[in-house]
Specification:
By secondary structure, this protein is mainly alpha-helical. It has helices at about 1-15, 20-35, 40-50, 60-70, 75-85, 95-110, 110-130, 135-145, 145-150, 155-165, 170-175, 175-195, 205-215, 220-230, 240-255, 260-295, 300-305, 315-330, 335-350, 355-370, 375-385, 390-395, 400-415, 415-425. It is globular and about 75 Å long. The termini are far apart.
Amino acid sequence: MALTIFSVMIVLLLIGFPMMIPLIAGSTLGFVLIFGGVGQLETMVQQMLAGIRPASLIAVPMFIFAADIMTRGRSANRLIDMVMAFVGHIRGGLAVSTAAACTMFGAVSGSTQATVVAVGSPLRPRMLKAGYKDSFVLALIVNASDIAFLIPPSIGMIIYGVVSNTSIAELFIAGIGPGLLILVLFSTYSIIYAKMNDVPTERPATWGERAKAVQQALWPLGFPVIIIGGIYGGVFSPTEAAAACVLYALILEVVVFRSISPAEVWDTAKSTGLITAVVFILVGAGAAFSYVISFAQIPQSVLAGIGIDEMSAIGVLFTISVAFFIGCMFVDPIVVILILVPIFAPVVQSVGLDPVLVGTIITLQVAIGSATPPFGCDIFTAIAVFKRPYMEVIRGTPPFIFILLSVSVALIFFPQIALFLRDIAFGK
C-alpha cells in the first residue's frame, strides 16, 4: 500500500502538479485503501481540519503579513544601511553586510524567500558594482537567507512545533546560536573570498554617518525587541508577538515612514492571504497524510528497514539530518516537515533526544535543502527575482553548503550550540 501511495504522489509531481495536489491525492488514496472505499473520507476532512486548528498556527500568516509590509516599505533598507555603515569599508565588507542583513531581516520575517527578495534586491547591484562575481553574490544571498529560518521568528519552527507538540518559544531561542555561528562563518568566508579576488574596499563611513544610520534603524530594530524580548520577558506568547509585529509594521510603514499607502496595505493583505491559503492547505493535507501513514504503520516499516532501532542517539540525529536534507532538495520544506516529523517522532522519543535540539537540527536541514540543487525552493525564488539562469545561481553554492553542513554536524556533537541560550532562558 505504501508503495502505491508514494508512486501516485511521485507521478503527480512529475506531471507538474503543485505539491498540495499529490499530498491530498495520497491522503485520499490512503483512506480508500485502508477503509475499503470512500465512506470514511469524512474522517480525512476531520483530520485536515484538526491539522489547521492549533492556535499557534495563527502566527504564520501574521509573520508573513508583517514581512510583506516591511518588504514593501523602508525597514529592510534601513537595516541594510546600518550594517553597511559599520562593516562596509573592510575587505569583503559588502558581502559581510549582506549576510548580516539577511540575519537581521530574518529576525523580522522568519521567511527565507522574503529575505532573498528584501535583501537581495537592493544589495546585489551594489555587490556587482563593487567587483564581486555574480555567481558568488547569488550564492551568498540564497544561502545567507537560510539564517532567516533559524533566527526567530521562524515559520519552519512554528510548523515543527505544532506537528511535534514542542514549545515554540524554546525552539525560537534555540535557533539563535546556530544562526549567529553561520553568520560568523559566512562572514569569514566572504572576507577570504574578497582578499583572494582582490575586491576593492569602500570608503569608511564617518562616525556621524554611523550615528545617523543607527538612528534611522532604531524603529526597524524594534521588531526583534518585540519578538525576542516580548516572548522571553513573559509579555507575549509567540502568537501574540506575531500580532504585535503586524501592528508595529503598519504603524511604522504607514504612519511613521509613510512608505506605503492604505491601498497598498490592502494589496499586501491579499497577497498574504493567498500565501497563507497555500500554507494551510499544505498543513491540513499533511495532517491527513500523517494520519494515513501512522494508521498503516508505515513509519515503523521504514525505520525498521534502515535499522534505526539499533542506532545510538548520534546515529539517529545523522539519519534525521540526511532524510530532511535530501527531502528539501526536492520538495517544499513545510511538506517535508509535515511528512517526516511524524515518521521520526517515535524513535526520537524512544532514544530520549531533546525535541528542541531535534527541531533545531531539522530546521537547519530544511533550510540547507531549500538552497541546494536540484530543486531547492530558494534557488527558484532567486531565478525569478534576479532573472538569472539556473546554472549561474547554483554555481557558487558549494562552499556555503559545506559551511552549513559543517554547522549541522557541529550541532549533533555539540548540542549546547543550540541549547545553551534555551537552558538559560528556561532554567533547564
